[in-house]
Structure formats: structure tokens, C-alpha cells
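Annex B. Sample input.
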Amino acid sequence: MLFLDELPEYSRAALEVMRQPLEEGTVTIARAAGSFTYPARFALVASMNPCPCGFRGTRTNDCRCDDAAVARYVAKLSGPLLDRIDLHIDVARVPFDDMVARRAGEPSEAIRTRVETARGVQRARYAATPYHTNAGVAGSDVRQFCALDARATELLRSASAKGYLSARALDRIARVARTIADLAGAETVEAAHVAEAIGYRSLERRGLAA
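Annex B, continued. Sample output.
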């Protein structure tokens, strides 16, 4: 697990070198003596503000950033890098009263059981393949193992027609949708699963990932 806080504040060069390990699970180092490839599979979790000042979209509306400043801030992250990140999720600022409220949420044990069940489904699905999870399926096999029903395919085609999703992003949406279906206990990837997966790519839905 690699966690990067304030993602746009890292140098562009440092971020771009993550593209190979995120895509292939390996890293290649070239030196005069030769080229060496090492395993480097990891889960990337990153955070960033919605704008340079950090207040865009808050209830108090104290943001001091114009649209151009926000676009420049997000543009620090390249489209090819964002393509390789499965989920882009907006997290709203939590009001103080909600933070101190003693409301019980879903217990971790219930979530763990649901995730373990979905992992079991994936182990069975990929038993005769080199894969272990939906995330590891190669692009050439996505259509086979993450096949969509007719309505789901049409929804993904509509999203593609808008022009802001690359072929790699479409494959990642299909993998995420397959996982959502597994968590729901569904045999087929349906339109609702694809819609949820598309909803988890908020930066591209704004058309900011250029």
C-alpha cells in the first residue's frame, strides 16, 4: 500500500514514473550495465484538495479560486496517470456535528464478510488462469472476464462517445463494474454496476483530465 498525500504537490516527473508499475506491476531500471526489471505491484491511495485553497464546494463557500486556478491545479496530474487510477472519489468536508455524533455505521465485520465473499467468487472465476482478482485481468481478457450485458454496454458506449474516456479507462471501468457486481452477488455486469463505476471517476466526468 502506497499513500500519497497532496498528490498534485509532487513533481510531475516523480508521478509519471509510477505509470509503469501501476499498469504492469513491475519497474524497469536502465543503467549502463543493462536494464533490470523488478516486481513492484502495489495499491496506490492518494488524496488532494478540490482546489489550491482547499475550500471549493464547501457549505460556507469560502473558496478563493477561480475556474482557471482549479484547472491548473488538477492539470498537474496527467491524463495517462489518472487513467491508471481506478477510483476518483469526491469526499465532502464533514460538518462538526456529524464528526462528534455517536451514530453507528455498518460494522467492519459485515464489510469484511462481503469482501471475502467477493474474493472467493473471483478465486473461483480465475482458478484456471494466471489472474487472482478482477483488477489483475489484462486488457486483452477484459471482454471475456468482465463481459457486460447489452444495457451496460450501451451505457459504456455513451460515456465513451463523450470523448473524455480513454480505452484504458474503459477497461478499468469494466473491471470495477465486475467487482461491484461481485459484491452485489450478481452473475452479470449490469447497467447499474457500470453507472456506479463511471461515477467513481469524478475527475474525468468533469472533463478536467486532459
